[in-house]
Give the backbone structure.
Amino acid sequence: MEKLVQKIGLKHGSGGRAMRQLIEEVFLELASPVDGIGLSALDDGAALRIGDQWLVVTTDSHVVHPIFFPGGDIGRISVSGTVNDLAMMGATEPMGLTCAVILEDGFPRADLERIRDSMKATALEAGAPFVTGDTKVVGRGDADGIFINTTGVALTRRVVTDAGLRAGDLLIITGTIGDHGMAIMSKRHDLGLQGDLRSDVAPINGLIRAALAAGGDDVVAMKDPTRGGVAGSLHEMAAKGKVGVLIDEQAVPVRDEVRAAGDMLGIDPLLVANEGKAVIGVRAASAGKVLAALRAHPLGRDAAIFARALGERPGAVILDTGLGKRLLAEPEGELLPRIC
Amino acid sequence: MCLGVPGKVLAIDGMVATVDFFGVKKELRLDIVDEPVTVGDYVLNHVGYAIRRIPPEEVQETLALFEQILDITGAREDLMAMDVQGEIAAGRAKA
Amino acid sequence: MAKDLTQELKFRDPAKARALAEAMQRNLDAIGREVSVMHVCGSHEQAIARFGLRAVLPRQLQLIMGPGCPVCVTDGPEVDEAVALAGMGVHVCTYGDMLRLPGTSRSLADAQADGGKVHVVYSVDQAVELARAHPAEEVVFFASGFETTAVATAAAALAQPPKNFSILSVHKYVPAAMDLVAQSKQTKIEGFIAAGHAAIITGWAIFEPFAQKTNTPVVVAGFEPLDVLASIVKLTDLIRERKAEVFNAYPRCVTREGSQPAQRVLWKVFEARSGKWRGIAEVPEGNLDLRPEFAHLDARKRFRIDTGAVRDEAASGLEAECICGTIMMGLASPHDCTLFGKACVPESPVGACMVSSEGTCRIWHTYGGAPDLRGVGLPASSEG
């Protein structure tokens, strides 16, 4: 028996087991029954029945450091994250976004405007209008520069959850993995790596729309592999679907830059955060169609079938390296460069 | 116990080499490397220091060694194999 | 998609790997009984785990992870020193492996959460640069790792670091770990895989007295999948032939004499002294401490480090019950330990085997035993 933690640590925010445990121990109290998918499902968002449609609602707070990084900034993440969470529930046409900003006393106006411009451009890309917002300023040291919360709402006729996998389903990753987290880590720890390490942050609702159009009801589960990486997403999908998942490591698309940085720092790209990718579970018969549709989209050119759901070992994520197999553990806490 | 990654030396400036790790480049210190390093050499990186110059011929030697290990094990009772074993022993004494 | 050196050079060729695994099986069949071998290197365990190599080993072969992770064997009171320094307002720089390593009650991550100036670095040079950038503040490098890593620390110490830079050394020495194993009277280990990257520095001849003393073969191995597999094949060859010799299966990096420049730098700055290894024992020559000539760089001399406030005396009591050493020797399983899963969990590990993600106790705690994945997902699927 693990004892209850008395103080919150950084690991409780990093998308792994510790975070899920904290949510289950503390916040599940708040869940109440709804007609649809509510808090107790611990999915990317909620889905509430409205007539013959579903209103999907999702909310996300963004606290990235550094706030400007190669490939993006906190503004682009704050829009993409929420648009993508809606898309993961099957709702690819956002009706509206909210924007709540908490600023630290002394934050430069120029930076704020730069972030605003980035949010505007990203929202345009996603076809997601901002409809309301809120601004607060706190004292110096009470926040780290800027925190942004966005909430999104969208309607859909069919909800896709992260619990729909069955034995025999195939899993598709929509592109190369680890780009965002590796770019941030390289910058944050000042590792002196030269090369094109850049975040993949992007709204992928258009890409997901193409996948859903191609696969229809055979698209059975989706998850965006942000914190916790692909490994974290697969653990959740395996546990909720009560299936095992077997990954073919050779089939996982990884850019050379990310692979090289991962080798050097002792970090497995499967554990590293993405901000513009999805893991999509598809009935095997439709996997080819969905893959072709994804590859035809500019954000899905590197999409690949990389794993399949098994009837055995429910909840386990197993990696076939081509040389042997191992259990892929869930990430715990912030990823750090290793020396051994 | 120690992560070591091989890379190719692109440039050298005093005690610092720019090394290509097949995707990213990084500057490494040459203070403790075992042999003089020149552009085009492979080196092994550990915590930002080159700890070993990897002679290309010895990379081939390692690959050949795998073949020999396989051959010996596959044809253990073969007298020919004993000769190969002798050669490995000789090669080892040389190393 | 990537085409790095290792793949180019075919150190990860699955067909060769299968051939080596079959060769291993033939050796085990010829030996005709169970055989236990030990590797004394955390990076070997990482390579074995990362590539899933345990799943291809013969069932009669037990591959045991020895005391080869310098982070795991860093003792609680040593971490307490770094935590105490962070509490004194000093900058503490360390490798990422060390941040969450618990002391007797707290880790550097805890100290950081409490506002301590703790920095994760990839190289000792980043700590030196930090000291240069803040000449009015004290910067301590909490230096972990085996001699391979200690050489880098030593090089930094010799490169005239600024006056506000100092070193808190918890470097460990590999040959001491081997001696520790050799001295164990009760052991069933018939062969050793030796740490390739440490041997780059010390040379492979350093293992010869060990092989003679224990009458056990030693193979020096690299870290690519084929390196590891070929080394085990060679080791089982030697076991079968009852040859207690040292074989260098990593000739592209390791020589008989090792790196002379690195050894010079290492022993100029450090000396091997006795020290306590977490959950194992007092290890003669197990720690690398700064020589008296480098007292000006020694954080233990520069600061009065009082660990009283961050030290949990009860933890030392627990440690007396820890059987990590026995588990590492392959003589006990985690279930034989009274602390396992109770007082000793990943969040607050007592012994080294619970610290590392590849430690025996950690694996048993996470997965409920040693998983056997040989048959998973068969027959092989046809998809990409």
